[in-house]
Structure formats: structure tokens, C-alpha cells
Amino acid sequence: MRKSILLAIFACICFVASYAQNVTTNILSKTIITFAKNKDIPKVEDYGDNLNKSVAILKANPQLKLLVEAYSCGRGSEQHNRDLAQRRANNVRKLFIEKGVNPDQIETASYTPNDPQNSQNDKIPNDCNCVVFRIVKRVEKESAVSNKIPNDLPKAKIFFKRNKDVPIIKDQDDNINKTVAILKANPGLKLIVEGYTSDRGSEQHNRDLAQRRANNVRKLFIEKGVDPSQIETASYTVNDPQNRQNTADHRPKEHDCAIFRIVKR
């Protein structure tokens, strides 16, 4: 009799555990948070219940993760829309972290009207000023690819206008996005960002300019969701041997740049 009771209790526990595991990802398949035009602060007033449910599920189930996908409409340039979408994703991610969710459980992505994911998702508002978040199971294969550096991205260079510290990223979008994806999927890797200058100006001016360039490229990756602890910066003027080694072309414009590359920690 006692054995039968214990078996019945055990069966109930297994059923509840199985049921809880199955419904975890179905309680909140998708939630959409909207934004005002050209704004990156989420309107969370109408989504408090779903936010709190998601937080509770994630904190109770570390094997699950949250996908935060941000969208922007077609107003503005492609770069403006992409930056806006990523800031929206980052702000929703920050909201969950402030509520106690482990940052490692949150993955972000950003899409503009030029991305197929934007047009494929038929459940987002027509103006695309929104973020969609949903809970999914972690992909076990992630650990298998950890610390692998793709051979097609050994080093990339971003240029700057003379005496300017704002990066010209138009020709490096693909490399930047590849690098972001690799770093977010592999916390065991880090990014080295090196700022360079030509020989125009004083040594102190050039050193400050080179560091600002490196800092601005670092900021670019952080805004796209890369963990700040994964990024290191350095700055070199023409008087540093690293400048001559890494920017072999002696033309001044070739030294108005920043070089970034992925390495193991």
C-alpha cells in the first residue's frame, strides 16, 4: 500500500514537471512592444503581465533564453534605421536584466525593412516600430563552436575622414555584423580595436584622436549588443612601431583608420 502511494506521488511529480517543461515555451510564444516614431524607449505599460511572466520563467529555467528582435520602419537612412532598431533591442534587454534575468539568457537582433526577417514576420505592426520578444530553448551546439574564430574574418579596417573620429562604416557593414554575431555567440572570444592616425598634427593631438577613434568603434559594437567586457582598445600614432607594422601603406589616408579583429581571451 505504502509503495503504491509513493509510486503515485512520483508519477504526479513527473507529470507536473513534464507539463511545466512543455508549457514553459508556450505560455508566452510572442509579445510585441511598440515604440513611438524614431524613439528607442519602449512603451511597457500594456505589457507588464507578459514581462513579469517572462522574467519568472527565465529565472526559474536557466536552460531557456529570451530572443529580443527589434524592428524599425523605412523612414530615414538604412544606417539610421539599423542603429535605431539595435538601440530598441538593447533597451528591452536592459529592462529584463534590471528585473533580474541573467544577461547570458538574452539574445538580441535588429532588422530594417531591407532585411527578409522584417517582411517575413506578418505579426508585427505595419509601421514596424516595435520589438518582439519570445522565450526559446537554448541551442546546445553553441558550446561546441565556442572559441572558434572563422578564417574569413582575420582583420577588418574602418576608415575616418581627416582629423575626424566618426567611423565610415558603409563598406564594413557585413564584417561588423559577422563580428557581432561571433562575439555574442562566443563569450570566450574578445575584440581588439586599434585606433590609428596619420602624421598630420602634434603627437598629443594624434594620440587623442586615435583613442577617440578606437572608443567610437568600441561604442558601435556595444550598441549592437556586444558585451563591453569583450572589447579592448588601443591607440597608435605614426611614432609607434605598431602603426608601421599594421598600416604598411605610407599614404596618410591609410593611417586614418581603426582596425578590429577577434582573438581568444
Element pattern in H and E: HEHEHEHEHEHEHEHHE
Structural class: alpha/beta
Low-confidence stretches: 9-27, 140-147
Measured on Cα atoms, how large is the radius of gyration? 23 Å
Tell how many strands the DSSP assignment holds. Answer: 8
CATH class of the largest domain: Alpha Beta
Q: If you had to describe this structure to a student in words, what would you say it looks like?
A:
With 265 residues, the protein is of the alpha/beta class. The protein has helices at 2-24, 48-60, 78-98, 116-120, 142-145, 173-185, 203-223, 241-246, 252-255, and strands spanning 31-34, 64-71, 106-111, 130-137, 156-159, 189-196, 231-236, 257-264. It folds into two domains: 24-138, OmpA-like domain (60s Ribosomal Protein L30, Chain: A, 2-Layer Sandwich), CATH 3.30.1330; 145-264, 60s Ribosomal Protein L30, Chain: A. It has a four-stranded mixed sheet. A four-stranded mixed sheet has the order 5-8-6-7. The chain is built from nine helices and eight strands.
Overview in brief:
The chain has 265 residues and is an alpha/beta fold. It has helices spanning 2-24, 48-60, 78-98, 116-120, 142-145, 173-185, 203-223, 241-246, 252-255, and strands spanning 31-34, 64-71, 106-111, 130-137, 156-159, 189-196, 231-236, 257-264.
